[in-house]
Design brief:
This protein is an alpha+beta fold. It folds into 2 domains: 130 residues, MutM-like, N-terminal (N-terminal domain of MutM-like DNA repair proteins), CATH 3.20.190; 124 residues, Orthogonal Bundle (Helicase, Ruva Protein, domain 3), CATH 1.10.8. It is built from 6 helices and 10 strands. The strands form 3 sheets. It has a 4-stranded antiparallel β-sheet, covered by helices on one side. It binds a DNA duplex (16 and 16 nucleotides) through α5.
Length: 277
DNA sequence: AGAAGGACCTGCACGC
DNA sequence: TGCGTGCAGGTCCTTC
């Protein structure tokens, strides 16, 4: 569920609340699918270490902790329904809690994920190539910092629909179903258009719309469609700004034409047949 | 090479 | 009430 703005909100919130804290104890649920790194190894890597920073890379939350010998990175991918929360130890444990990090001051960081598409893992910087780009970074570019020319070049010669290209994490990081639909609406481009056939002008419009939508969503704490909450359990507000996402059959807010819903790249896709060409 | 489709999970809203 | 269906913010693997 969480896309770039939601992951950014959670990562920033976590950083503000837990940077500098020591992890004294780990509990894990024993659901093997959740743990890309085996639970014993994860527990070993985190117990007794101090949290240096928490940041977002693509849709991954990267928690850097000072290990006994070297700093390691604790990677949290929220999947569709993952939540990362800071709470007091007295709080009752929510169903589908899969990991709890107890901090030295008694608070806890909890990972809760009903559908279990989320993944937890430990990444150790390579000793041979400590400066090598981390594997979780992937080849995709960050949409908030990519230049206009590089953005246009990403889609050149691609026959795939522009929406599928936006969702492809090896091209762009962090764009998911909501922000793909919303940015295409704001750019006036139909989701099925072949990426490689968009004009430079259209792609520049798309980049501008995507950056605007992502920035505004970060400002509003992300989109809470059903169960997304930030590190304090607080919902976001960008869902109130959705123009097409999950509005199939409802009138377009600009021209009143019913919003159309199709399936594209296996995902529900929403657009205005009048405003988007 | 690259794209479609199914698989992985639980929960909820809907219709009968 | 209760069941069956379809759908949900993501990604990975297989197939074509």
């Amino acid at each position: 569920m969480p896309e770039l703005p939601e992951v950014e909100t959670v990562a920033n919130g976590m950083h503000a609340r837990v940077a500098g804290e020591r992890i004294v104890r780990i509990w894990t649920s024993g659901k093997p699918q959740t743990f890309k790194t085996p639970e014993a190894e994860l527990t070993q890597a985190l117990t007794g270490s101090a949290i240096e920073s928490v940041r977002r890379v693509g849709k991954t939350i990267v928690m850097t902790v000072s290990g006994k010998k070297q700093a390691v990175e604790f990677l949290i991918h929220l999947g569709m329904t993952g939540r990362l929360l800071v709470c007091d130890s007295g709080q009752p444990m929510a169903p589908h809690t899969h990991a709890i990090l107890t901090l030295a001051d008694g608070r806890e960081v909890r990972f809760v994920d009903p559908r279990r598409f989320g993944r937890l893992s430990i990444h150790k910087p390579s000793e041979k190539k400590p400066d090598a780009p981390a594997s979780y970074t992937g080849p995709g570019r960050e949409p908030l910092t990519i230049s206009a020319d590089d953005f246009v070049a990403l889609f050149r010669h691609r026959k795939t629909p522009i929406k599928a290209a936006l969702l492809n994490q090896s091209l762009l990081h962090g764009v998911g179903n909501i922000y793909a639909d919303e940015s295409l609406f704001r750019a006036g481009i139909r989701p099925r258009r072949q990426a490689g056939r968009l004009t430079r002008d259209e792609l520049l419009r798309l980049r501008k719309a995507l950056i605007e939508v992502l920035r505004q969503a970060i400002k509003l704490g992300g989109s809470s469609v059903s169960d997304y909450v930030d590190a304090d359990g607080v919902r976001g507000f960008f869902q109130l700004q959705h123009k097409v996402y999950m509005r199939g059959g409802e009138p377009c807010l600009v021209c009143k034409t019913p919003i159309q819903r199709i399936t594209l790249a296996g995902r529900g896709t929403h657009f205005c047949p009048n405003c988007q060409h």
